[in-house]
Design goal:
Shape of chain B: flat
CATH architecture of one domain in chain B: Orthogonal Bundle
Distance between the termini of chain B: 34 Å
Structural class of chain B: mainly alpha
Helix content of chain B: 40-55%
Radius of gyration of chain A: 29 Å
CATH topology of one domain in chain B: Histone, subunit A
Bound molecules: zinc ion
Number of helices of chain B: 3
Shape of chain A: elongated
Number of strands of chain A: 15
Distance between the termini of chain A: 81 Å
Number of helices of chain A: 16
Largest sheet of chain B: 2 strands, antiparallel
Largest interface: A-B, 65 and 36 residues
Number of strands of chain B: 3
Radius of gyration of chain B: 22 Å
Oligomer: heterodimer
Strand order of the largest sheet of chain A: 3-6-7-10-1-11-12-13-14
Chain lengths: ~500, ~100
């Protein structure tokens, strides 16, 4: 059933969006959840597998203690209660990316429950309640062959890589958030600030583009004061911006259906990055269809209270506290900090400053140049091939006069294009400022000889005429001269 | 006593387990499952509230492994056990839909 989309602004005048977020985070442990296979990203397919993560008969899982500690740490940072006792459960279903035909997960006994995250949405704090944080194992990765651009539909067969199968996964589930018209922004801010918190805890590398953070967005609409409406669950939301777009689209779509009297189907939908739309997947299985039961191969967890307290005491400063500290230490304003956070460059800027760069210059370069390039390419700034070391070096070269602002932009472009680090790009592209006085003087005399009339004006005291001469020298040196120095040389020679 | 198990429920379970059953088999299994559920229900009758359900026969908790890498299997060895392989990956028949 389809209907016209209702313009978002109009939709939220009649309907109240309610959202819920289920976020999966791959933990950054060295080994998998239940076996000693490594978890490194990008290895050759099926080179990080063993009888346990391949589900071979007779293989027995043994729980990774570090994964449990990391999960408890996440729970504590989200102000959750830590279960005194809990178990794993088998979630039974058949799918080729799960070699055992069940996934080891937690069902009615999650290790962390009842927490919250205070989210800063454009300066206003929205408390997002956390229902549960539980542990499970990731699945393998499928490649669909024979159809259009790797799509599952139309494929002739599929190829499966089990390197990812069994990597520790933590699922963080919110309670319904009555976010009002601001729902898309609240959803985006929640995922961003959750990611920021997870990065601070150092439990995951939190890279959306590599899939170590994945987000499912539940959306429903209701008339103000009514009970919650039927929700849809949008999967495949792979960037912070997509979280916002997915909510926005679902609100417009559902409002269209509801206004023509069509009921919303409870279903999984897939988000399409290119069009910003969602399309239906399969109808959701009932929880009972998974026939959950306690995992008999893993003994219960009674996480020691003294270790919980130890972990609680070790919690690092929260991002909100950190922002206050950075504001005081580096002089950035709240607005600048928010802009850097939103652009996904705050950590990168801080690292750059820690490498010796000036705080305002580091902020400006990441914010105005790198984040802009990331935005144009539709990727996160952190995934571009430029590091804090590169930016610190670039700023050092500008500070000592080796590069002008214009040349530094060219050097950055080279680094972004994958031509190597800053020094390699400067050398390869011949970008260093012509600081050799002799070469610069020669260029100045050449220009004066070529433009005697203009030079005469300057000699006659018309300093406005020096501009064209500077331009000519800059052109002659391929933009590699320091304009201020050229000016002073011209003035010195002509007056 | 619990509700009697219906043939539809057996058919549903068979579908979830990807088992193809004839109508005659569904009837047979419904009868057999009925007996099993009946027996379990008899046990449940004598269970007092102070006896927690048993999920593990050994009274152990917190068996943890150190986060230390152990060698994985050789890929050729792994894929040799697969019905088909391509590009270092397991080849499987086409999937009909996204994962549930
Ligand atoms: Zn393994």
């Amino acid at each position: 059933m389809t209907a016209e989309l209702v313009d978002y602004a109009e939709a939220v005048t009649a309907w109240e969006p309610v959202i819920g977020l289920e976020t999966h985070v791959e933990l950054g442990t060295r080994t998998k959840m239940f076996c000693g296979c490594p978890t490194a990203f990008g290895a050759e397919p099926n080179t990080q597998t063993c009888p346990v993560c391949l589900g071979l008969p007779g293989a027995l899982p043994v729980l990774n203690g570090q994964a449990v500690r990391s999960t408890v740490l996440i729970g504590l940072a989200l102000h959750c209660d830590i279960a005194a006792w809990c178990r794993f459960a088998r979630k039974n279903y058949f799918y080729p990316d799960m070699p055992k035909n069940f996934q080891i997960s937690q069902y009615d006994e999650p290790i962390c429950t009842d927490g919250y995250l205070d989210v800063d949405v454009e300066g206003e704090i929205v408390r997002v309640e956390i229902e549960r944080v539980h542990m499970e194992e990731d699945t393998g990765k499928s490649l669909h062959v024979g159809g259009a651009t790797g799509r599952i539909h139309g494929a002739t067969h599929s190829l499966v890589d089990y390197n990812r199968a069994g990597i520790p996964l933590v699922e963080i589930v919110t309670r319904p958030v009555e976010a009002g018209p601001n729902a898309p922004a609240v959803a985006k801010a929640y995922v961003e600030q959750l990611a920021e918190l997870l990065r601070t805890l150092d439990v995951s590398d939190v890279r959306l583009e590599q899939g170590s953070l994945r987000c499912d967005v539940n959306t429903s609409l209701r008339r103000p004061g009514d009970a919650y409406g039927t929700r849809t669950e949008t999967k495949n939301v792979n960037s912070y911006r997509s979280v916002e777009r997915a909510v926005r689209f679902e609100v417009s779509r559902q409002a269209g259906l509801l206004e023509q009297g069509t009921r919303i189907r409870q279903e999984t939908r897939h988000f399409h990055e290119d069009t910003g739309t969602t399309s239906p997947g399969r109808s959701k299985e009932e929880a009972t269809d998974y026939r959950y039961f306690p995992e008999p191969d893993l003994v219960p967890i009674a996480f020691p209270v003294d270790v919980v307290e130890e972990l609680r005491a070790s919690l690092p400063e929260t991002p909100a506290v950190r922002r206050a500290r950075l504001r005081d230490a580096y002089g950035w304003s709240d607005l600048e900090l928010e802009e850097m956070t939103n652009a996904g460059v705050l950590d990168l800027v801080v690292s750059t400053v820690e490498l010796g760069a000036a705080a305002p210059a580091a902020r400006a370069l990441w914010q105005n140049e790198v984040a802009k390039a990331a935005n144009e390419q539709g990727v996160e700034a952190s995934s571009l091939p430029v590091s804090p070391t590169d930016v610190a070096r670039l700023l050092a070269l500008v500070a000592d006069g080796t590069l002008t602002a214009a040349l530094s932009r060219q050097a950055l472009a080279g680094v972004l294009a994958g031509e190597g680090d800053v020094d390699a790009v400067v050398a390869a592209r011949g970008l260093a400022v012509v600081s050799d006085d002799g070469a610069l003087r020669t260029a100045v005399y050449d220009v004066i000889a070529a433009q005697p009339d203009t030079a005469a004006k300057v000699r006659g005291g018309n300093m406005g005429a020096v501009g064209p001469l500077i331009g000519a020298v800059m052109k002659a040196t391929g933009g590699k001269a320091d304009a201020a120095k050229v000016r002073s040389l011209l003035v010195e020679v002509l007056t | 006593m619990p509700e009697p198990i219906t043939r539809d429920e057996v058919a549903h379970l068979a579908r979830l387990a990807r088992l193809e059953c004839t109508d005659a088999e569904l009837d047979t299994f419904a009868g057999q499952l009925e007996v099993i559920l009946g027996s379990v229900a008899r046990v449940a009758e004598v269970v007092a509230d102070d006896i927690p359900p048993t999920s593990h026969s050994v009274p152990l908790t917190n068996v943890f492994r150190e986060d230390v890498v152990r060698p994985s299997l050789d890929r050729d060895e792994v894929l040799a056990a697969a019905p088909a392989a391509e590009d270092g990956r397991f080849e499987v028949p086409r999937m009909l839909d996204e994962a549930p």
